[in-house]
Specification:
Distance between the termini of chain B: 43 Å
Oligomer: heterodimer
Distance between the termini of chain A: 43 Å
Largest sheet of chain A: none
Helix content of chain A: 55-70%
Strand content of chain A: under 5%
Helix content of chain B: 10-25%
Shape of chain B: globular
Number of strands of chain A: 0
Strand content of chain B: 15-25%
Order of helices and strands of chain A: HHHHHHHH
Largest sheet of chain B: 7 strands, mixed
Largest interface: A-B, 36 and 36 residues
Structural class of chain A: mainly alpha
């Protein structure tokens, strides 16, 4: 795994993710993860994974039950950034959403199975955060349950 | 430390162990019931999809926990990797008082006559150890009835024309059908099939002073918030404790069955916190589920039994099986979701046996429990629809209430190489060698699965599905919640582990009572059969210890 120095510094010097205190992820890593979350479940008429706080779910659970995935994130994020720069000449976080989507589609079809494995992990964790119980940090205000029109069914059973 | 001698130690307070402890203590035998897990109520386990028995991505509310337990599982290329309980390959069944019955879906099926006579019905398929049970449906029928009345099962007698002869009705009427089940019921009738309400170990009315079902959407995977689900934790075990002859000890990890030079079990060794304890007794009953029961026998090797207890002929741990689930999803044009649990309410047994083309075995087909949103987002997405992105999100919104699933537990042909072994180099938190799981499903299972899946799609189309897609099992070995077969019951000690009353062949006071003894596992969820056998074996164990036949039910000849 090779990361060039400039890219490494870019990750380190990225602006601090403003809303939550970060423990497991650096601010730079958090920006990337949040961008991935927004690709996995984008906002439309309803909030997406970013707005529902899925980053907070991932950040919180990596310090708990999802601890065994920490290395996936620590290795996967720079791997993704490198691959993106190689392919597009730009930082992933500098691409517009349509370009990000296109790049991620190439990750799924591409030969880098380790990178794809990381991407699949983020997809899974994002679905957990968005559709699981708000008490774990994501699904803010029961966004997904309201979107599916099942909040009434789930409420009172969300102990 | 060695404790004072008791009559019986039962290891494992689950579906079977809870019943054995109840029956022995009702007969006045001093019984110690050891459980590795804790005693949970709904208030501890809650309704958290990500920490349920079904979805364990953040751990399993019902145990075991990732910190203390580890196993090895075989990858597709034959290597073994460490797996923790929250990972699928672990093959987890709950670890708590009540075992899997705290959080199961509670379908309460009787196997049919043919399910006990698979070899006679289908011959001997190559590469399978398919065999008849040494007991028949008729032997077990009174004990099925006892299980239905003691545990509490709701259902409609006579509604399933393929059901085997039964002498008594169910103690409670069937639960109501929800919107989806009603639509599927009509569709099956339209196909000329024979739909009926699934018998459930869930109260439809107040029974044994516990409430009827409140039809919440959180059923399978969760404890019931009103205790309408009839786990042994709220039925048999409290009755055992009420006799004052049974002592339940939780958080006790059994490491070994102690045997003497004469080959008799004399007690068990276990850990409680930091304490290593020995509990002497006159008889031991192992009820830890198919994987863990085999592990305990294998970990109890001595000079006299160098390959483990009951394992002189290398059959302990063999024939691990579960079910090869097959079925389909379908999307219908209007919402069928009404949020009313337990949702899995309608079944057909038209394809349990007698399939065309020489197919061996079959499956009951039924609709599914409510799919909570995360599981749906991963598993209920049709081929061609992206697994992420705007299309995925919009699909969720459009189809969550219109997606119907019909599935069946395809009966597996037992495979000798599908097995549980000790992995001596890997130990759990107490230093006890853990187990490893290896093997594969029989090719015949996949043929049956394809047939069952095609029937599922047919059923969904008849119900108005505009799009359907199949769900098919792979070749990987089964070992999860329906785990069975590792201590086969039989008359020949060369080719089985226990006799027809669940006693280890070459030992006179050691019994295995759980799904381990199943010769074959039926095309149904196995819990009621496990429990019927627990009543059957308890009658014999009581007689053995009392020196007379059992007081509860007469033993058939």
């Amino acid at each position: 795994m090779k990361i060039d120095r400039r890219l490494f510094l870019t990750i380190l010097s990225a602006p601090l993710y403003p809303a939550i205190p970060l423990v497991m992820l650096t601010a730079g890593e958090a920006r990337v993860v949040e961008a991935l979350c927004a690709q996995i479940i984008p906002a439309d008429d309803w909030p997406g994974a970013k707005e529902a706080g899925v980053l907070y779910y991932i950040e919180t659970q990596l310090a708990g039950p999802l601890e065994r995935f920490v290395d996936n994130y620590k290795n996967g994020i720079p791997r993704l950034m490198s691959a993106c720069r190689e392919q597009t000449g730009k930082l992933f976080t500098d691409l517009d959403p349509a370009q990000q989507k296109q790049f991620l589609q190439t990750v799924e079809a591409g030969p880098d199975t380790e990178l794809n494995r990381f991407w699949q992990v983020v997809i899974d964790h994002t679905m957990q955060g968005f559709y699981g119980s708000p008490k774990h940090g994501g699904n803010k205000d029961e966004t997904s349950w309201r979107m599916l029109a099942i909040a009434d069914v789930m409420e009172g059973h969300n102990h | 430390m060695t404790l004072p001698t008791v009559d019986v130690v039962v290891v494992g307070a689950g579906a079977a162990g809870g019943i054995v402890a109840e029956q022995l203590s009702l007969a006045g035998l001093h019984t110690v019931l050891l459980e590795r897990g804790d005693k949970f109520g709904f208030s501890q386990t809650g309704h958290d999809e990500l920490r349920s028995q079904r979805i364990t991505v953040l751990g399993n509310a019902f145990g075991p926990d990732d910190k203390h337990y580890v196993r090895l599982a075989q990858t597709s290329d034959g290597h073994f990797v460490r797996v923790r309980p929250s990972e699928g390959a672990y093959g987890n069944n709950a670890a708590c008082v009540g075992g899997g019955t705290m959080s199961y879906g509670a379908m309460a099926w009787r196997y049919t006559e043919k399910d006990f006579r698979m070899r006679s019905t289908y011959g001997a398929p190559e590469a399978s150890t398919l065999e008849d049970w040494p007991i028949s449906y008729d032997d077990l029928e009174p004990f099925y009835s006892k299980a239905e009345w003691e545990i509490g099962v709701s259902g409609t007698m006579g509604a399933n024309p393929f059901e085997a002869r039964r002498q008594k009705p169910y103690p409670m009427p069937a639960l109501p059908l929800n919107t989806e089940a009603s639509a599927l019921f009509k569709a099956a009738q339209g196909l000329g099939w024979h739909p009926f309400p699934i018998p459930m170990a869930i109260n439809s009315v107040t029974y044994q002073k516990r409430s009827g079902c409140i039809q919440c959407p959180h059923c399978v995977g969760f404890a019931c918030e009103v205790n309408a689900k009839n786990s042994t934790a709220v039925t048999a075990i409290p009755r055992a404790l009420a006799t004052a002859h049974c002592e339940l000890r939780t958080n006790c990890i059994t490491s070994r069955i102690v045997t003497n030079d004469a080959g008799k079990a004399t007690g068990v060794e276990y850990f409680q916190g930091d304490h290593a304890l020995t509990q002497p007794c006159r008889a031991v009953v192992v009820s830890c589920s198919a994987t863990e029961s085999a592990r305990l026998l294998l970990n109890s090797a001595t000079k006299l039994f160098p390959h483990g207890l009951g394992n002189n002929n290398d059959w302990v741990g063999r024939n691990l099986q579960g079910h090869a689930y097959a079925g389909a999803y379908g999307i219908v044009e209007k919402d069928l979701f009404d949020g009313l649990g337990p949702a899995a309410r309608v079944a057909c047994c038209d394809f349990s046996h007698g399939l065309p083309g020489g197919l061996k075995g079959g499956a009951m087909l039924s609709n599914e429990f409510i799919r909570l949103p995360y599981l749906f987002s991963r598993n209920a997405i049709p081929p061609g629809t992206p697994k992420w992105g705007l299309e995925h999100k919009q699909h969720m919104r459009h189809s969550y209430k219109r997606t119907v699933s019909v599935m069946g537990p395809v009966q597996e042909m037992p495979v000798f190489e599908s097995r549980v072994e000790i992995a001596p180099e890997v130990k759990d938190a107490w230093g006890i060698p853990t187990l490893r799981i290896s093997g594969h499903r029989h090719a015949a299972d996949l043929e049956v699965a394809r047939f069952i899946s095609a029937r599922a799609e047919e059923w969904l189309k008849a119900c108005g599905a505009i799009k359907t897609w199949p769900v098919l099992p792979g070749r990987g070995v089964s070992g999860g919640q329906h785990q069975a077969g590792t201590c086969r019951m039989g008359t020949d000690p060369q080719t089985s582990v226990v006799d027809r009353y669940c006693r280890i062949h070459d030992m006179d006071n050691l019994y295995v009572v759980d799904g381990s003894v199943h010769v074959t596992n039926g095309g149904f969820n196995p819990s009621l059969t496990i429990q019927a056998i627990a009543y059957w074996a308890s009658a014999k164990i009581t007689g053995d210890l009392r020196g007379r036949s059992a007081p509860v039910l007469p033993l058939p000849a």
